[in-house]
Design goal:
Layout: H1 2-9, E1 53-56, E2 66-71, E3 78-84, E4 103-107, E5 112-117, E6 122-129, E7 146-150, E8 160-165, H2 167-171, E9 180-184, E10 187-191, E11 198-199, E12 213-215, E13 220-226
Parallel strand pairs: 2-13
Antiparallel strand pairs: 1-5, 2-5, 3-4, 3-6, 6-7, 7-8, 8-12, 9-10, 9-13, 10-11
Length: 230
């Protein structure tokens, strides 16, 4: 998320991530809450915290301005954990395996789940096969090919952006993860399974060569395909 926010607003911010576990007891919103006060590096995290995102039915996707539909694997159930760029104290941090995601859910094989977001939200998400251990670095940061998103950034004429990111995974010397593809408004960012191929993905901290997909203001419905093999 550092790279997306830098492109959109020209500010210094930490990489995406309120941290999270996949505990069944993790909190999640059932409707959009109030907007939090805008903080450039954090965006809208919802009041109460995490209420800027919640699960909706696929039929309701057209009713919301900003959405992500997660398309499941053909063969395996996948778990999804989503976070805001900042925690409840408005401090940027990377997702850690011991904490709680604001929103988490399972996408059964052959199905899809959709999430609505309030404007000003930015954060990320990670996917894992159900029943598998959650990979993490020596520092406890959750590893994998992250999806990252910015919906209607307040300081950039409400521009939006998205990417698939392997920065933390590669920094930890690992690339053996399930692929992820995100599509939106004829733009695409993906990393295929085990990083066999990629497009518009974030692989390093070099803003000149790692930029994801930046879009003008307006509604944005993203489609994220898990277990993407290229």
């Amino acid at each position: 998320m550092y790279l997306l926010i830098t492109l959109l607003a020209g500010i210094s911010a930490a990489r995406a991530g309120y941290s999270g576990s996949f505990l069944d007891s993790a909190p999640s919103a059932t409707s959009l809450g109030k907007r939090s006060l805008p903080v450039d590096a954090c965006g809208n995290v919802g009041v109460p915290y995490g209420s800027n995102m919640f699960l909706i039915s696929d039929d309701d996707v057209p009713k919301y301005k900003y959405t992500i539909t997660v398309v499941g694997s053909d063969t395996d159930d996948y778990r999804v954990g989503m976070w805001n760029t900042c925690d409840e104290d408005h401090q940027p941090r990377s997702p850690r395996v011991t904490d709680v995601f604001p929103l988490q859910f399972t996408v059964p094989a052959g199905s899809r789940r959709s999430v609505a977001f309030d404007g000003g939200s930015h954060g990320g998400f990670v996917t894992f096969r159900s029943g598998s251990a959650i990979p993490h670095s020596a520092a406890g940061v959750v590893l994998g090919f992250w999806g990252e998103f910015v919906f209607a950034h307040e300081s950039s004429d409400e521009s939006s952006a998205f990417d698939v990111c392997a920065f933390e995974a590669l920094r930890a010397g690992r690339a053996q993860f399930s692929g992820l593809r995100i599509d939106g408004r004829d733009e695409v960012s993906f990393i295929a399974t085990n990083l066999t191929s990629q497009a518009n993905a974030i692989l390093s901290g070099d803003v000149a060569t790692n930029h994801g997909c930046v879009l003008s203001s307006g509604p944005l419905s993203l489609v994220a395909t898990v277990d993407y093999r290229g």
